[in-house]
Write a structure and sequence with these properties.
This protein is an alpha+beta fold. Helices cover 49% and strands 21% of the residues. Helix 2 (20-27) packs across helix 3 (31-43) and helix 4 (58-88) crosses helix 8 (206-226). The protein is elongated. The N and C termini lie far apart (47 Å).
């Protein structure tokens, strides 16, 4: 099935739209299979259908924009994460939010005892992590929880939004603390990423770390903006 979907994208990316018959002829797919796949892709907004046939959909552009942005943020973050690690002696991370889960893009250092592999390969629920809450606090929508828990969550996220930083004590691992701040863009909208440091609780000086992590997140934001086509946000 994936091969068939890819073959459809391959022929559509070369044109400004194809009819069902043209897709069948260029891909060699059975007409019924091609029609079913095309309609499913339209339903997912990966394609759109009009009087001229099928063409790439808006979701392709949205996904491309997200990946372009994340690549710029990742590239801008590496240097600053190394500086953050050198300054604090703690593990420094860059993470993004993906369908209610946290994906770690970069980790520098690991004196906290946290396995680099477990972070980079893992996809923990955002609500169960400090960096995830830092991201959710600045996201337009929050994952649903039972009523009582949802009320507490909204209050917690409001506090994080007010402070600009999230704190955690043993939320991810016993004996480990964390401080996280979102990478904020122009207009105070989250830019899909957050910076965090984690380490043994007795090494965590939360007020001091909060200022350093917020500053690092701001530096990452400026670096990502400078690498784009337009000027950096003020």
């Amino acid at each position: 099935m994936i091969d068939r979907v890819v073959s459809i994208f391959d022929v559509l990316e070369q044109t400004d739209g194809l009819t069902l018959s043209q897709v069948v002829r260029r891909t060699g797919l059975p007409r019924s299979s091609a029609h079913r796949i095309l309609e499913q892709l339209v339903g997912a907004r990966l394609l759109r259908r009009d009087d001229n046939g099928y063409r790439l959909g808006m979701r392709i552009m949205e996904l491309g924009s997200v990946m372009y942005h994340q690549d710029r943020v990742r590239a801008a973050a590496v240097h600053h994460l190394h500086q953050l690690h050198a300054c604090t002696g703690l593990a420094a991370q860059l993470a993004v939010l993906d369908e209610g889960k946290v994906v770690y893009l970069v980790q520098v250092g690991g004196r906290s005892g946290i396995s680099s592999r477990s972070l980079v390969n893992g996809r923990p629920q955002a609500l169960r992590t400090v960096v995830g809450k830092a991201l959710l606090a600045h996201s337009p929508a929050t994952c649903c929880e039972p009523a009582a828990a949802h009320h507490r969550l909204r209050a917690e996220l409001a506090d994080i939004r007010e402070r600009g930083v999230a704190y955690g004590h043993e939320e991810t691992m016993p004996g480990v603390g964390c401080v996280a701040a979102p990478v904020i863009g122009a207009g105070d909208t989250a830019s899909f990423a957050a910076v965090s440091v984690s380490g043994p609780l007795d090494h965590m000086r939360f007020p001091e770390l909060a200022a350093v992590v917020r500053r690092t997140a701001a530096n990452v934001r400026r670096g990502a903006a400078d690498s784009g086509d337009g000027p950096a946000a003020p």
